[in-house]
Backbone:
C-alpha cells in the first residue's frame, strides 16, 4: 500500500498527506516498505529538512519491532544526520544540546542503525562536543547489539570541537 496520497475513497477529491500523517500511517503498520521510505523522504523533506518532532518520530519507527526494507536504514541515518548536523545554524556543528538529545534517542533505540547514525554524524559534522566521540566509542567497546566489540571502527582521526 502506498502512502503517497491519502484520500477519502468515497469521493474523487484528493488531499495531500502531511508528514505527521505519513509517519503515523507507517507507525501503524507491521513493516516499512521501499514505497513508505520514498513517501517519507518526499514529504519530510518537502520544506528542506526535518524538525525535531519528525526526527523523534523516525526514532520511534526505528525502536518499533517492525520489518524494514533495506532502504530504511540509509534513509533513517541520512534524515536524522541532516536534522542534527545540517538543519540548524551554524550548519556542520553538533552542539552539546543536539549531542545530548541524539545520544538519548540512540540509547533508547539500541539498534545497529542507531549506532551507525552516531558514526555517520561523527563523519559528517565539522565539529562535535569534545565528549561525543568518546561516548560513541564507549558504546562500540561495550558491545552494542549487532556490533562486534572493539575500536577498529574508530581507527581514523575524529574531528572534535576545541
Residues:
Amino acid at each position: 500500500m502506498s502512502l503517497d496520497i491519502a484520500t477519502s475513497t468515497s469521493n474523487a477529491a484528493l488531499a495531500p498527506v502531511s508528514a505527521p500523517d505519513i509517519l503515523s500511517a507507517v507507525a501503524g503498520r507491521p513493516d516499512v516498505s521501499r514505497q513508505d521510505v520514498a513517501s517519507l523522504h518526499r514529504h519530510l523533506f518537502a520544506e528542506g529538512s526535518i524538525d525535531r518532532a519528525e526526527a523523534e518520530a523516525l526514532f520511534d519507527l526505528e525502536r518499533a519491532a517492525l520489518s524494514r526494507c533495506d532502504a530504511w536504514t540509509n534513509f533513517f541515518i541520512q534524515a536524522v544526520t541532516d536534522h542534527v548536523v545540517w538543519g540548524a545554524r551554524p550548519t556542520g556543528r553538533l552542539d552539546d544540546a543536539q549531542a545530548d538529545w541524539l545520544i538519548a534517542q540512540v540509547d533508547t533505540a539500541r539498534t545497529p542503525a542507531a549506532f551507525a547514525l552516531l558514526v555517520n554524524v561523527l563523519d559528517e559534522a565539522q565539529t562535535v562536543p569534545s565528549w561525543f566521540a568518546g561516548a560513541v566509542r564507549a558504546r562500540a567497546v561495550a558491545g552494542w547489539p549487532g556490533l562486534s566489540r572493539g575500536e577498529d571502527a574508530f581507527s581514523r582521526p575524529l574531528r572534535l570541537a576545541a
